[in-house]
Each structure stands twice: as structure tokens, then as C-alpha cells.
Design a protein that fits this description.
Blueprint lengths: L6 H15 L1 H9 L7 H8 L3 H13 L3 E6 L2 E6 L2 H23 L12
Antiparallel strand pairs: 1-2
Amino acid sequence: MLIAANPKTGELKAKLFRGFSDPSRLAILEALRDGALTVSEIVQATGLTQSNVSNHLGCLRDCGLVTAEQQGRFVRYALSDERVGQLLRLADELLAEVAKGVYECTRYNAKESNHG
């Protein structure tokens, strides 16, 4: 028996996936897959600017995808839950099988998806 999806649940899931939808945020999450890093280590791993990394870390923290822990004069950032890393791995596996379709998809044009 099919159960109608709760619109609120769908909205929350869409909001969750927005955390993964920005290339800079995704690069940060990927960098954190192997463990906690400081902002400067994330900058080095991703090639993003320090201000860009700091801005996106704020977003990722607000969304609950990343945690921050003060260690001396540094703050180390980590994935908030091992399932975030699992989701990234699953995305890698899925993309390996459907990459051609994703690449050719014109409906997910990055310039058109900047609605929030």
C-alpha cells in the first residue's frame, strides 16, 4: 500500500540536499570525509579561499552537517554524523552508474538552480 508523502518531509529533504548542492560546500564535505580539519587545512585541500570556506562552513554548521570543536587556538571542523560520509560514498557509487545521464541532463542547469 502506498502512503502519501508528507509535504513537510519533502521540503525538509530538499533543504537537506541543498547543503550538498553547492560545489564549494560539497568540496568541503568531501575534504572532511577523512576526518576533522582546520579552516586552513580545508583551504589547502579544496583550493577555495579562506573567506569562501568560512562562509560555507557557517552554512554547513547551521544546517547540522558539520560540527566545530575548539582545540587551543584552532577550530577543527568535522562531519556531524558518519552518515554524511556514507551519503557522499553512495553518491559516488550512484554517479559511477548514471554519470552520462547526469552530465547530459539539461534540466539541472547550475545557473537556473540558484533559487535558494
